[in-house]
Input
Amino acid sequence: MATRKIDEKTLRVREIEASAKILALKIDAAARVISTGIKYGCLAYCAWLALQGVRALSGKITLANIALNFLGSISTNNAVCYTVTGGAVGWGYLERRLRKAKTETFQGRVRDLEKLIDPKRSSSNLTPQGDTNPMDEPT
Amino acid sequence: MSIASIALQTTLWLLIGWVLLFCCWRQYRIDLLRQKLFVLRDEVFDIAAAGQMGFSDPHYVQTRQFLNAMIRYTHRITFTRAAFAAFFGRKTLLKVKAPVDAIREMPKGPVRDKLLSVHGRANIAIGIHLFTASPLPAMAFVGLVLHLAVRGMYKAYSEKVGSDRTVAAVERMAILSQAA
Output
């Protein structure tokens, strides 16, 4: 009788877990569609804006004129702005590369030392650089 | 500056903004949350290494598994998913037992407090991530707070004004002048 009760309880728990898994998959799929839509929708909007500008100017001005105008309009202030922005982005990129290299160097050592204490040590399954595992499909 | 160069510059800045927002900023927030969770995982490891609980203790194993899962799927912790889960998953998802529920049932002591603290800090880090990883919910959140603050101020002001004798006297004066 007691075994039957436990079985029913286990069955109920499994049922709840199964329906939660199905719901999680549905939510994941819907959220992925929305996130991708927003991401590429913004990019499409940028492209549409650029296209509108090109259409409005077509026949009136050449691409060379636009480029010359653009370069000619770069004042000293603007040039400082572009240089600082470009420099900051480059610096951020290099710092990030350095951090990943350091992570890769140290993670093995930490893992090995922890395994000496806890042989059953579980892992997060990230790449050695600390990035999302390609198997876990980045969104 | 001609219209053509303004259009070109605007498009260029929008594209730079898009790259910064959707590639750099989001990735940075993911790495930041992972780093916070790694620190918490190390903390749990240190508790076990200090002999306060065993490495095979189910509470340790479950907490570590929870943190590992969060670290692994940080890129999937998004505002959209959280909103969907809150709307549609209340009846189903919240019925699944979480590791923190088992920790709450532990006898009171320093280990229980430490594990609860780890779970609490992990939840706070995840909550902050939800609102900061994408600028849209962050802006919506600031807007909501401002809206509630202004609404509260307006409500408090109207209640105060409603009970203010000076305002009531001025109102009566206006009514009398209108009637005259």
Notes: The mean pLDDT of chain B is 82.
